[in-house]
Amino acid sequence: MKNPDISTLRKSGVKAFVTHYRFDRKDGQLYPKNVIENGADIDPRGGKVEVKLVKGDKTVIGVAKCSSLDVFNKREGLNKALGRALGKLSK
User: Measured over all CA atoms, what is the biggest interatomic distance in the chain, rounded to whole angstroms?
Assistant: First the structure.
């Protein structure tokens, strides 16, 4: 079963927040993509996607981690994290 996309969820009244994390080669730490500075040495392998859904008074988080052996894929990570968050939201 295909997950609804983020815009469809938002139109239905669910607040959705997506954060992509990437590894910095200099220190090996995961950082949210929006705080990585230009010129940072970002590793194309590994990473994490976090989806936070808020519906009424219920908040759930779905996470998808990408192995440091795999090339990071935002779309695949988002789909997995979203599916996990939706599973928690429906319980």
Answer: 43
DSSP letters, 33-62, are GGGPPTT--B-SEEEEEEEEEEETTEEEEE
pLDDT at 44: 81
Whether 62 contacts 31, CB under 8 Å? no
What would the two tokens of residue 74 be?
A: 């935002």
Note the pLDDT of residue 78: 92
pLDDT at position 79 over 80: yes
**CA separation (Å) from 19 to 51, 52, 53, 61, 91?**
7, 9, 12, 11, 23
Q: Can you give the pTM of this predicted structure?
A: 0.84
The upper half-sphere exposure of residue 62, i.e. CA atoms within 13 Å in the direction of its Cβ, equals: 21
